[in-house]
Amino acid sequence: MRRNPFSLITYGAGLLYCLQENLAGGGSGISGGDGPSWVLAALTEGGFANVTTHDSQTGYRIFVATK
Question: 34: part of which helix (H) or strand (E)?
Fold first, then answer.
């Protein structure tokens, strides 16, 4: 798998902005750096019965959820 420099930028932005906004709004503080398990749990809790993941060539994980 190739490493994409944009991945580092988006991860950093998530830590510096998105995580802070999440915590300031009373959120749990879970972020993309915590791995895919929380996304899978949220999708399942949201009523999606079938969830699959695919790793893209650019380093992003893609979630496909169907009811």
Answer: none
